[in-house]
Amino acid sequence: MAAASGHNARLLALALALLLAALHLHGVVCDPSHTHFAMVSRNAPSWRPDRGGQGKVSAPSLDTCGCGPAPPPADPLKAASLDKCGCPPAPAPSPEDFLNENLQALYPVIQAFKATITSDPRGVTASWVGPNLCDSYFGGDMYKGFYCEHPPAPPGATTPKDNTTLTIASIDFNGYGLGAPSLAGFVDAFPDLALFHANSNNFSGEVPDLTGLPYFYELDLSNNNFSGAFPATVVPLGRLLFLDLRFNRFVGTVPPPVFDLTVVALFLNNNGFYGNIPDNFGSTTAEYLVVANNQFTGPIPRSIYNTSANLSEVLFLNNHLSGCLPYEIGLVEGLTVFDAGGNDITGPIPLSLGCLGLVEELNLAGNQLYGHIPDVLCALAKTGKLQNLSLSDNYFHSVGRRHCLELVRSKVLDVRLNCIPNFPHQRPALECARFYADPPQHCPFVPHIPCDLPGFRPPAAALPSAVAAEEGGGGGGGGN
């Protein structure tokens, strides 16, 4: 199961890379009318209002716990310690202190949310003071986690590049450890918001309704304390490109419309989702799709073949999936990672998997697969990009003699805990005999290879029995 652990690590690295890439976007396409709505601009000169005290707020003195007026401390952690003095909150900035009316309207939203924060181990909220909500845009360090940009102009108009339209376009709380009982009334109150990232915090409650935000396209609520059914407020978000709900405590079935979202990445892993994966799974536009470490049952939907134009990495591992391994997987030509380890999937390996010329990692370990491991699959280590093939902990009785044996020797192919005679570390013979006497399900063997692989064809002697098995609904393995 080392391969499964490696794929979990790969998943985490992938998610991190996607989020880091998003944080450095300087031009983003949401839809034809919302182009180049950049999330963050970090290289502009610092802006510090210093005329007539504009932009400055009262704060307790650094020397005592007195509540008289004083400049705000430069160190947000010191400011956080002063909050414990019992001083009344500093007066709100006057309207002329703000860059524009947009930011003036968002100031009370942030302050109201700040008042609900129950944990702030890094002292982040101490920087949420004063009128400089876009301080990071000008290279400053106030209002950590908030990033500003100019919203896109209406069709036919030009977006002014002065400060009159600057607004908060993204919020990134990744890794802050903030706690709050709800995000409702906060995230949904930023009319120009495009991104909300909140990985590794302690947020809970209802997921806000973000359908009123016309530019919104990335939602990351991973590694928090959300619970209950799949959030219904997410389903209508037709512009979403990135949805990450992993490592929460959601339970129940996943609504079919989730797979109609036009996302590039969809992470639902490490929750308590159960029931069948919806039949419209193949409607997804995702390149990266992870439903691992849940309680899903039933088969991998055969509609997966519809994802051929987009799906690159898919992880089904560690659920309770069953049924026959679908022939249609071999039609998803762009797959680079396929992981369905740790389930109850059965049947022979379809020869169609030999058409996955781009696949690098293929994990089917820990299932109830049986029959022959075909050379047409193992040949991908030479003709394709296959680097890791794990078929351990199944019930295979033989391996292809040409390519598969070579992969076993080179440790690219793991076949431990199977039923292969004269191979080390196999199941007891009695256990194998009992399995083949009463396999969990009789799955058809399809001898057809749906791509041009010169030199590979099922042996003529095997064809009649294979076809007969398919027509009769029984039979189990064989083929080259």
UniProtKB/TrEMBL annotation:
Q: Which keywords, in A-to-Z order, does the entry hold?
A: Repeat, Secreted, Signal
Judging by the UniProt lineage, the source's domain of life is: Eukaryota
PANTHER family annotated for this entry?
LEUCINE-RICH REPEAT EXTENSIN-LIKE PROTEIN 3-RELATED (PTHR32093), LEUCINE-RICH REPEAT-CONTAINING N-TERMINAL PLANT-TYPE DOMAIN-CONTAINING PROTEIN (PTHR32093:SF128)
Pfam families, per database record: LRR_1
What does UniProt give as the signal peptide span? 1-30
Q: What is the lineage of its organism?
A: Eukaryota, Viridiplantae, Streptophyta, Embryophyta, Tracheophyta
Q: Where in the cell is it found?
A: Secreted
* Entry GO terms, CC: extracellular region
Q: Kindly give the InterPro entries that the UniProt entry links to this protein.
A: Leu-rich_rpt, LRR_dom_sf, LRR_extensin-like_regulator
Protein name from the UniProt record: Leucine-rich repeat-containing N-terminal plant-type domain-containing protein
Q: Major place of localization?
A: secreted
Gene3D superfamilies listed in its UniProt record? Ribonuclease Inhibitor
